[in-house]
Amino acid sequence: MVTDVVSGLAPELAGANRGAGLVPVASAGERFTSFDVDAFEVPGGREENWRFTPMKRLRGLHDGSAALDGTAAVEVAGAGEGVTVETVGRDDARLGEGGTPADRIAAAAWSAFREATVVTLDGTPEPVTITVAGPGEGATAASHLQLRTKPHAEATVVLEHRGSGALADNLEVVLADGSRLTLVVTEEWADDAVHVGAQHFSLGRDATLRVTSVALGGDLVRISPTVSYRGPGGDAELVGLGYADAGQHLEQRLLVDHAVPNCTSNVLYKNALQGKEGVPDAHTVWIGDVLIRAAAENTQTFEFNRNLVLTQHARADSVPNLEIETGEIAGAGHASATGRFDDEQLFYLQSRGIPEDVARRLVVRGFFGEILSRITLPELRERLEAAIEAELAVTGA
User: Fold this and answer.
1) Are 52 and 101 in contact (CB under 8 A)?
2) Where are the alpha helices (DSSP H) in the chain?
3) What is the dihedral of CA 96, 99, 102, 104, to 10 degrees?
4) Among 28, 37, 128, 359, which has the highest number of CB atoms less than 10 A from its own CB?
5) SS3 label, residue 16
6) Cα separation values, 53 from 22, 213, 223, 228, 372, Å
7) What's the predicted TM-score (pTM) here?
8) Nearest alpha carbon to residue 103 among 201, 170, 195
């Protein structure tokens, strides 16, 4: 394991020195992972993987002061034929197959959960809806959820997050060879909620993963998805949208780790922001890391992040990263764009007799349309569209 020459710590543990510029930032391929929370230093906010996160708003999830003694209820609906739901203890051998925590909060969540929910999908024509409810206002909790597919199974899962309180959790998605999973993840928290989640996606040979993420609620939501491939032919697509209004912090930190040949990945995230004078800025953070290792020949990948800043008092940070260790790839690229609301579009719509407030909503709806169109469940798509409309109405966009 590579160590920090200044402090003798592994790369992810050398946050203070790295933040001071004393140690170069390690490759994504060298990032430290562990199930042991004590293997990680308490982050101070200067570390590369924490520098955009408002640490004081984490409710103690990062430093061990959070009690994590609340309960995050997990309910599964639509678990008919082809779906098995189990509540298991920490000793279940399947837990951890999806991946290993890569930061202190994910490791704390792993160390603190008492029971995990395992949902096994053997092919089902109807969507399965899983609801994770926060522990309640002022409470903190840890939880663990694993989704598994059988070989060549096809399934659709909607994972909804609701309620109040602070939650640290790990989501594992383990796809068997030749299986296909469509997953929609929504963050529809109450205004006080804090959610810090690690998502571990592990794809078997010729497995297909389609993930759509929608972040609308919460005070602070920080999600860290990691995609890994266990065999050639894996295909992963991660798309998402976030709407941050005054005081909200929405953060996505992705890593797509191509370690085997003949796999593909596509990442597209869009955020809209609208702030307000006198309160903390609306803030979105998107970090997109794609690592193509030396063995990952014939990889095809692209990642793109777009941010639409609707008003002042809004800040969007976007950092796409691409590491390539082999020249034998099919294609790779990344892009990022952040811009203000286009007054010309607004003028065009108003010149057609559309009131200004309606015109602004149409522009935002068009911006998000590419993401929402990926949701193939009509009722869910309409509900999320209505939720976005409600956000726009509240903030006056």
Assistant:
1) no
2) 15-19, 104-112, 343-351, 356-372, 378-395
3) -20
4) 128
5) helix
6) 21, 20, 11, 25, 27
7) 0.91
8) 170
Token look-up 């994972």 returns 159
Q: CB of 209 within 8 A of CB of 181? A: yes
* 60, two tokens: 């103690």
What value does the mean pLDDT of the chain take?
91
Cβ-proximal residues to 283 (8 Å cutoff; 6+ apart), any chain: 52, 54, 244, 248, 249, 250, 273, 314, 315, 316, 317
Beta strand 83-89 pairing with 115-121: antiparallel
Give 394's pLDDT tier (boundaries 50, 70, 90). Answer: low
Mean pLDDT for the stretch of residues 51-63: 97
3-state secondary structure of 372: helix
Rounded Cα gap, residues 18 and 35, in angstroms: 23
For residue 362, count other CB atoms closer than 10 A to its CB. Answer: 14
Report the alpha-carbon distance of residue 212 to residue 242 in Å, rounded: 11
Question: Helix axis angle, 356-372 relative to 378-395, nearest 10°?
Answer: 140
Instruction: Give the tens place of pLDDT for each residue, 3-42.
Output: 333 333 344 444 434 444 444 556 888 999 999 999 999 9
Widest distance between CA atoms in the chain: 66
Nearest to 263 by CA among 238, 235, 230: 235
List, in sequence order, every residue forming a beta bridge with 65; answer none if it has no partner: none
Nearest-angstrom CA–CA distance, 280 and 282? 7
Beta carbons within 10 angstroms of residue 84's beta carbon: 12
- Do residues 335 and 294 lie in contact, with contact meaning Cβ atoms separated by under 8 Å? no
